[in-house]
Amino acid sequence: MARRIPPLNPLRVFEVVARTQNLTLAAQELHVSQSAVSRQIAVLETYLGIELFRRERHGVTLTRAGKSYAEEVVPAFDAIASATHRLLGSTSQGALRLRTYTTFAAKWLIPRLQDFRQQHPSIEVRIDNAIPDVDFDRDPADLAIQYGDGRWPRVNSDFLFPDEIEPVCTPAYLKQYRGARGRLEPLLQHRLLVSHYRRNDWEDWLAFAGMAAAASGTERMSFGSSVLTWQATLDGLGIAIGQTAMLKAELESGRLVRPFARPYRGDKAYYLVRPKVQREARKIMLFRDWLLETVAHEASDNERPGS
């Protein structure tokens, strides 16, 4: 048997009038006119075929049937309000939950996060590291930073910066393994360091630079992450593909160098993603604004002459 549910807007008006026992107060709470409240009550009474209120000179009072109905309808709306409060509270209250890759967190985000903390000391940021793309319906995250083409279903994405890659090594490694008269091809013939999750980077850059033949027989050493790969590079184990944005500190300090100075940009980039259909809490918008401002400021600095 199909459930009979009356029109919800008139039912909501009935709940407010029954609770306040006053048409004027009900109209104020609902942000409508008093006549609009009366019309909605009339619609509900017509649907039910029962008089719910007595119209008296000083206002309205519930009939016996109306009082009985209100005793069940008002608690139902209270339960809906409580459920809605809990649902919205799960996203608007508490820590900001950010999901991203270990390398991005360690080499880009964490070195800059203190600036956000100084601006917004009341917002706690919790970082969860994961490789698969986020599923906001499944994963406990408010935001995520992902690598890709920016076209993911059911999310809004903000472009952060392109994926710029090129070989990096230590100054000592460059001095030891470059060829006579400064030839750079010999750097590709000793040992190439490879990150497991970025294992195609070497092929992409070598094809771009036209140097695939120079590295065709070179020994390769693989590591489980880019962070480990770059640490091995700093320890002089070989030459690796670096992501320029992630190695800003090492390149500016001179701990690592870009011997070929030929960066390659593919068709993928880093994006900030958030659910497409979600009431965006203040903490989410503050972090998004800070992140985009930080990226824009650094991009502007990089474009200045001499930078």
UniProtKB/TrEMBL annotation:
Superkingdom of this protein's organism: Bacteria
Annotated family: Belongs to the LysR transcriptional regulatory family.
Start and end residues of each HTH lysR-type domain: 6-63
Gene3D superfamilies referenced in this protein's UniProt entry, alphabetically: Periplasmic binding protein-like II, Winged helix-like DNA-binding domain superfamily/Winged helix DNA-binding domain
Swiss-Prot/TrEMBL GO biological process terms: DNA-templated transcription
Pfam families cross-referenced by the UniProt entry: HTH_1, LysR_substrate
This protein's name: HTH lysR-type domain-containing protein
Molecular function, one GO term: DNA-binding transcription factor activity
Species per Swiss-Prot/TrEMBL record: Cupriavidus necator
Keywords in alphabetical order: DNA-binding, Transcription, Transcription regulation
